[in-house]
């Protein structure tokens, strides 16, 4: 998988390293900006209200 | 002796599987870092923003002695805007630097920026129950030390015109998530009898779970106009 990506990056080893680093940073940014904020409410740490059937509260986004 | 081709494909499968395992492991570590650290960074940022917003808003409008919002054009105080801060809360038991904005409503997005006021419950200082929820863990851990609350502890709310000092009535009470009577105007099981000016704090229990809730009740002990400076519980 990573070998396949490496082989398909252009340029010499230095250019490839820089591009690979940028790719990693882009993936981490996307995770922190979009994926994790979506996934985090699925964990129970946000259930801090008393709200009957957990509807509309600070629950897991029901 | 297996053929070179099958050795190569076996290597490919093993390598790809290892790479997937490493990728998933990295994802999990990153997610834990996000939940434990990054949510705290974001919440501290949002809380600072909220307190700064309140301070600049309060600096613009002259302090009025009434508990309501003085700029309200109508007779009744202006309603709080959903998801926006309207007061600050300090609990000296949680540390002298512990100050969080209180925002209107208890939606998940709101509680990521500070404490959430149960819509429909009383305003600070009003007759009834001023009910507030907060994260125990993640998003800055505002109510991390919730079980340390003891009778007599001060909970100080500032709405821009008045310091409201509430006193915790008893040790935190553990209940189930559906027990909405704990935020009633006269909360059930609080020991309070008859109408009064109460405050309820709620958070999750156990610390990292959601099977129960921890509740703390307080009653209004003193009020002090902002113009007269901080209440003794903050200066002493």
Automatic annotation (TrEMBL), chain A:
Keywords: Membrane, Transmembrane, Transmembrane helix. It comes from the Bacteria. The chain crosses the membrane at residues 12-36. The keyword Membrane applies. This is Uncharacterized protein. It comes from Streptomyces microflavus. The lineage of its organism: Bacteria, Bacillati, Actinomycetota, Actinomycetes, Kitasatosporales.
From TrEMBL, chain B:
Pfam families: Sortase (PF04203). The active site is at 135 (proton donor/acceptor), 204 (acyl-thioester intermediate). It comes from the Bacteria. The chain crosses the membrane at residues 12-37. Residues 62-79 have a biased composition (Low complexity). Keywords: Hydrolase, Membrane, Transmembrane, Transmembrane helix. Residues 62-82 are annotated as: Disordered. InterPro entries: Sortase, Sortase_Class_E, Sortase_dom-sf, Sortase_E. One of its GO terms (molecular function) is hydrolase activity. NCBIfam families: class_E_sortase (NF033747), sortase_fam (TIGR01076). This is Integral membrane protein. It comes from Streptomyces microflavus DSM 40593.
């Amino acid at each position: 998988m990573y070998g396949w990506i490496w082989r398909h990056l252009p340029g010499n080893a230095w250019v490839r390293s820089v591009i690979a680093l940028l790719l990693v940073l882009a993936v981490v940014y996307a995770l922190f900006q979009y994926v994790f904020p979506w996934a985090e409410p699925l964990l129970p740490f946000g259930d801090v209200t008393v709200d009957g059937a957990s509807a509309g509260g600070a629950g897991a986004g029901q | 002796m297996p053929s070179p081709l099958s050795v190569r494909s076996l290597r490919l499968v093993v390598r790809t599987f290892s790479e997937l395992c490493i990728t998933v492991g990295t994802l999990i570590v990153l997610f834990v870092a996000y939940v434990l650290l990054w949510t705290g960074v974001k919440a501290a940022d949002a809380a600072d923003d909220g307190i700064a917003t309140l301070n600049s808003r309060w600096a613009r409008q002259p302090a009025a002695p009434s508990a309501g919002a003085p700029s309200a054009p109508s007779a009744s105080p202006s309603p709080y805007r959903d998801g926006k801060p309207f007061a600050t809360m300090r609990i000296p038991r949680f540390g002298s630097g512990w100050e969080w904005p209180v925002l209107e409503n208890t939606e998940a997005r709101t509680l990521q920026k500070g404490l959430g006021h149960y819509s429909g419950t009383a305003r600070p200082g009003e007759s009834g129950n001023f009910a507030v929820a907060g994260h125990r863990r993640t998003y800055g851990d505002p109510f991390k030390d919730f079980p340390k609350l003891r009778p007599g502890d001060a909970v100080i709310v500032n709405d821009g015109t008045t310091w409201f000092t509430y006193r915790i009535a008893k040790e935190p009470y553990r209940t189930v998530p559906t027990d909405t009577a704990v935020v009633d105007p006269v909360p059930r099981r609080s020991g309070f009898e008859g109408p009064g000016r109460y405050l309820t704090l709620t958070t999750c229990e156990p610390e990292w779970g959601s099977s129960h809730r921890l509740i703390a009740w307080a009653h209004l002990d003193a009020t002090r106009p902002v113009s007269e400076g901080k209440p003794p519980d903050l200066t002493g």
